[in-house]
């Protein structure tokens, strides 16, 4: 019982942290677009991309390694805290130095370079906080991560919006972000010092062993982050800051689905791992169910964006220039279909010990993305970037489907698609009716959401039966 409470507490803490980070980021992007315009939004997205790339290269491999090793050897926590932090500091300084050189050598304007330099300072405190967070995770104290980050994220958002309202530019916004990461680091060190006794003494042998051990993790993380950010970096060089801003605004609208899909697959992954011993049929059922649930979310969302995407962009970002991104929005929306398959299939492969296929997929799609992005962005700018992302996602999805079919089982596509297609037909009918009788965007969105919720409820009752659904909703209800 105690273990279940700890698991629930840790899962809830991580979910709260992730949701807060995602929501505040979305609100911040919308606020920058509204108050400062697409050019400075592009500067922010570009600076954040460089920060994210070099932060990942400098630290994320260490976080994965430290969490694993600390869970196995908790008595070495003081060594990891002091010597690990010093090693992480060296790598983060190196990462920031390389960022400075790269940004200086590329043909950006002076003000854009300044934003990148200031935002890049966040690499150092964020990387160091990864050490303390590894300790929290290894000792199953994830609630301390949420305690350290959530209040700062919320306060940071309020401060930045106040500064932008006072007509301060994106450089000061970047400085606030760097300062906030330093504050989080200070809070986490204060909390970790409450239960970890340490001495200010460096273990050089430990640092050398760790440097050798982390190399594989750094390669994997580096390839993944390059794949995620290649379009923004290419757009910045071939399209300029305004195009980067438009692309970033569109990408933010995909975040709700990304949060849902990530949370769902992470929750089901333990069951997938256990199902390996129960046979291929059980694994197939779990995988197909996961894909179907994601499609029930993705397809109605895609249809909604096709009908009201352009108006939604203008409403959210309060600038008619963002209507130019409607085609890119539609292209990226169609990519959600591939994500419905790719994410569950990648995890079922890992559950069966085929993680090398995942690495091969990342290498293949990253290389393909690099080859496609330059000619597509050069010719079609924003739409070319979105097209490149969609093509890469299709290839990646195809790789996962092929290897799941070859190594594990064949997917029953009709079983997966029938309910999502029925839901999609209903949502199309709803939007067509609303298009005819209502011209108010908010009314249209609320009505479509209500229709979707009722349809999902109907599918649940049809699938599980009214009594089973009622029992799930009211598990303690006793018949009179």
How does this structure look, described?
- The chain has helices at 2-72, 77-105, 110-120, 123-138, 143-165, 170-192, 204-213, 215-238, 241-252, 255-275, 280-317, 326-351, 355-407, 413-437, 441-464, 466-473.
- The chain contains 16 helices and no strands.
- 86% of the residues lie in helices and 0% in strands.
- It starts with a helix and ends in a 7-residue tail after the last helix.
- It has 480 residues and is mostly helical.
- It has 2 domains: 1-213, no CATH class; 230-475, no CATH class.
- The chain is globular and about 70 Å long.
- Helix 8 (215-238) crosses helix 9 (241-252) and helix 11 (280-317) runs parallel beside helix 14.
- 41% of the residues are buried.
Described by the principal axes of the CA atoms, the overall outline is globular
Strand percentage? under 5%
What is the number of domains? Answer: 2
Determine Rg (CA atoms, Å). 24 Å
SSE order and pairing:
Layout: H1 2-72, H2 77-105, H3 110-120, H4 123-138, H5 143-165, H6 170-192, H7 204-213, H8 215-238, H9 241-252, H10 255-275, H11 280-317, H12 326-351, H13 355-407, H14 413-437, H15 441-464, H16 466-473
